[in-house]
Design a protein that fits this description.
29% helix; 7-stranded mixed beta sheet; alpha+beta; 258 residues; 5-stranded mixed beta sheet
């Protein structure tokens, strides 16, 4: 596997998908919100972004499997050691709210573990990326900087979902007297920890593989600890794509909430 090529193609596709998303985002007359199973919203932006990424990845890496939120799940992927895991538009609810807090997520997993992650924020132009043992980086305004989690232990800053409430997390905030809290959508939360702007992200409720794969790679390469709620490792390209155990991302073990 040529990781540099995988990263290059994934970054280009994430940006291309993001530009298509913005075209629709800025023209509400193009919006048509449908609802999938579980009353999850689906827009034209989700579909267009999926087409761009799926076609691009399959053309560049025909031997790799693909699991995308908006694509049909070909279970043959389970026999492939390499699988791209894609969320073409992570934060569709944020897209509909027009708060700008949505991303494009592309990850590559090998033998169930994320080895490459790309997250693009269309509204800001921030491009996060990481490769296994290569570090995590942020490209913004023509500049590239390496990311590392903060060393902060006293008064850690917490990020939480802006669209998904969590009673367990509210209780932890009260128990630990955590007052510095930011609510934000999509995988931006994990990126905030990777770049040192927050220290704690707990998610008790279920997510999907495509919600976390790219974020996990970037956070871990920046030095974060990423575990399921029972402290086990999160793996990918599973038959059941639901992350049922929840997960947490912290900058240091001292910030683990119990």
């Amino acid at each position: 596997m040529d990781m540099n090529r995988v990263l290059k193609v994934s970054k280009e596709l994430a940006v291309a998908a993001g530009k298509e998303i913005l075209k629709i985002y800025e023209k509400e007359e193009m919006w048509k919100v449908e609802y999938k199973e579980g009353h999850m919203p689906l827009t034209l932006a989700d579909k267009k972004a999926h087409e761009i990424i799926a076609e691009g990845l399959q053309a560049a890496f025909p031997d790799y499997a693909l699991l995308s939120e908006e694509g049909e799940d070909d279970q043959k992927r389970l026999d492939n050691p390499y699988c791209f895991i894609v969320d073409p538009l992570d934060g569709t609810k944020e897209f509909i709210k027009k708060n700008g807090q949505f991303t494009v997520n592309i990850a590559l997993c090998h033998q169930g573990r994320p080895v490459m992650g790309v997250i693009y924020v269309p509204v800001t132009g921030e491009l996060y990326h990481a490769g296994k043992d290569m570090g995590a980086y942020l490209e913004e305004d023509g500049k590239v900087r390496k990311l590392h989690v903060s060393d902060r232990v006293d008064s850690p800053r917490v990020v939480m979902s802006s669209s998904h409430g969590c009673e367990e997390m509210e209780r932890l905030l009260e128990r630990y007297h955590l007052t510095e809290l930011v609510r934000v959508g999509s995988s931006i939360k994990g990126c905030m920890i990777a770049r040192g702007d927050a220290e704690i992200y707990y998610r008790h409720t279920p997510t999907m593989e495509w919600d976390t794969a790219a974020m996990q790679c970037i956070a871990q390469e920046a030095g974060a600890i990423f575990r399921q709620m029972d402290d086990s490792e999160m793996t990918y390209n599973r038959k059941d794509c639901v992350n049922r155990k929840g997960f947490y991302i912290i900058n240091r073990q001292e910030n683990k909430l119990v």
